[in-house]
Specification:
Radius of gyration: 24 Å
Largest sheet: 8 strands, antiparallel
CATH topology of the largest domain: Jelly Rolls
CATH class of the largest domain: Mainly Beta
CATH superfamily of the largest domain: Galactose-binding domain-like
Low-confidence stretches: 1-17
Number of helices: 4
Structural class: mainly beta
Order of helices and strands: HHEEHEEEEEEEEEEEEEEEEEHEEE
Mean pLDDT: 91
Number of strands: 22
Oligomer: single chain
Distance between the termini: 46 Å
Strand content: 35-45%
Number of domains: 2
CATH architecture of the largest domain: Sandwich
């Protein structure tokens, strides 16, 4: 009996350790879904006036789909208009999604009790007429800036009702001189690695004037300061990442010439002070240092000779 108890406890302990965390969606993200009982043309696209639309209600007496894991149930609750049933008529939902990077993958899981049509930026992606049947959509049309996700749902049986949309978007932020997102300075003040630091007086970083660094059969196009640097000197770089969702997987590929220290939201997440190693690309997991909303990447490069150059490329998958 004691042996059986030990086995049960071990199974429970291992199961608990491996289970995904049960974390609800932050309230400010959950509140981005709006709903209405009637809508005019263009309700599912950008530029529509949502005056009179109401935040959705999540307090629904409904059974969740069998395919949803506990972690998904905690983060992505079924929603509906707070007025309840609309006598079988459509209920309209929309959420504005802000994209700050270049989307490499956008994936959506959608189901409704009872029926739905799902749109992105006014384009119909698909529909389902059976209750709580999962439909999955891959979208390649999300552009940097504002986008609109929308759904038209119906409760035709008049009993329980609900709509669930699970979105996963992966973005990358490669350096471009035109964007001027990376800013740099040769001097800085207290708190320069944090999100509240004012870097408006810093200069935009520029493409590296030296040849690309080649490592592991790849070319790494770096960026640097506008002015040439001589001798031992520090250069400081910053950029923001705006995330309209919860980051669930994030990494940065980084290399620096001649050494670097990488901070995310003021937290030191990577450093390499050995010149022979700093120029080799390293991949750093930064998931735990990120949060939804505004994030800041900050890097200190220490130059000993030649150009002070940096390659820093974040990739983030977020859910909402």
């Amino acid at each position: 009996m004691r042996g059986l108890m030990v086995v049960v406890l071990l199974v429970l302990a291992v199961g608990g350790a491996l289970a995904a965390p049960l974390e609800p969606l932050p309230p400010e993200l959950a509140a981005k879904w709006l709903s209405a009982l009637s809508a005019r043309d263009g309700w599912n696209a950008l530029g529509y006036d949502t005056e009179g639309w109401a935040p959705v209600s999540y307090d629904l007496p409904v059974s969740y789909p069998i395919w949803m894991t506990p972690a998904q149930q905690a983060r992505h609750r079924l929603m509906w208009h707070p007025a309840g049933n609309n006598n079988g008529q459509p209920v309209y939902f929309r959420r504005q999604l802000w994209v700050s990077g270049r989307v490499t993958e956008a994936f959506f899981r959608v189901a409704a009790d009872d029926q739905f049509r799902f749109y992105a930026n006014g384009r119909l992606l698909g529909e389902e007429r059976e209750p709580l049947v999962l439909r999955q959509f891959t979208l390649d049309g999300l552009a940097p800036g504002a986008n609109v996700l929308a759904a038209e749902a119906r409760d035709v049986m008049g009993q329980s009702r609900g709509l669930v949309v699970i979105g996963e978007v992966t973005q990358e932020w490669p350096f471009t001189a035109e964007e001027q997102a990376w800013r740099c300075s040769l001097s800085t003040g207290t708190g320069w690695t944090g999100a509240d630091y004012d870097d408006t007086q810093w200069q935009p970083a520029v493409p590296d004037r030296a040849p690309a660094i080649e490592a592991d059969h790849q070319r790494y196009e770096c960026f640097t300061t506008p002015q040439d640097l001589d001798g031992f000197v520090n250069a400081y770089f910053r950029r923001t990442l705006d995330l309209d969702g919860v980051p669930v997987a994030a990494k940065v590929t980084i290399l620096g010439d001649d050494s670097y220290q990488l901070y995310v939201n003021g937290q030191l997440v990577a450093l390499e002070r050995r010149m022979d190693y700093a120029w080799r690309p390293a991949t750093v997991d930064i998931t735990s240092a990120l949060h939804h909303g505004r994030n800041v990447l900050a890097v200190q490069i220490t130059n000993t000779w030649g150009p002070a150059r940096l390659y820093c490329a974040p990739v983030v998958k977020m859910v909402f």
